[in-house]
Amino acid sequence: MTNGTNGWRAGLQRGGIELRHLLRNGKEMSGHLTNVAVALLVASYLGDDVPGTGTPMTHLVLAGFAAYLLFQVGLINLPQILVTEREEGTLLRLRATPGGITAYLVAKSLLVVVLAVGTLALLLAAGALLADGPVPQGPADWLTLLWVTALGLLAVVPLGAAIGAVLPNPREALALIMLPTMGLLIISGTVFPITSLPVPVQQIAAVFPLKWMAQGLRSALLPDAARAAEAAGSWELPTVALVLTAWAVLGFLLAVPLLRRAARRESGSRLTARQREAARSGAPAT
Description:
Elements: H1 2-24, H2 26-44, H3 57-87, H4 90-95, H5 100-130, H6 139-166, H7 170-187, H8 199-205, H9 209-221, H10 237-265, H11 268-281
């Protein structure tokens, strides 16, 4: 119990340190700010309404990008962080530290959650100020925004950790995860009404969490008239909660054993071999 408590305390401290480093890292911060700027730029060029709803297309796109930014932090940024730090020998060092793996996971979870929520808040605030974007209109909408955001992060962060545990190296990580996530961005109703897609494509999108994250955020940010553009003609919030919960459970079931396996497999000889391979391929040594 003491080791577990110490691990959580150390993780929170480590997470705070990593957050301060992130805020001071102009290159990393500029990447996240660029994502927000791109979303605002795309939305600002859309002047039509969503067909049959009277809702500006700008609002639908901003709500969709809000979901995608949460999805991206969990499924793209987190796996890259884990793979890079594994290659640098972080897991090897933590394995010898009591409570080290727990502290590491707590720190990364804190970092990702704060980054995701901060990016979401920035997008919604900037959208409201610069593009007359959508905001929740009452306590019920704010509550929906909070629980969809929280459950959406629970659905994608453990999954991102599981992916990071099995990706081969940082040089291949981005290529392996970017194409599927961009595909989901297109088919999940985040940049145009999902009803404009063929039914089989809608059914494929419904398997994955991004579609339901976007639908839940639209329910919090858009007026009820916008439900006409949903596949079922309603927000289906119980289904949103059910699907995201299922993905959260699956992610935790995968992440814990995969991260433990990755830590157990780490050794000085493996780390040295990877560094030599990186040097031969022309990549900078870690």
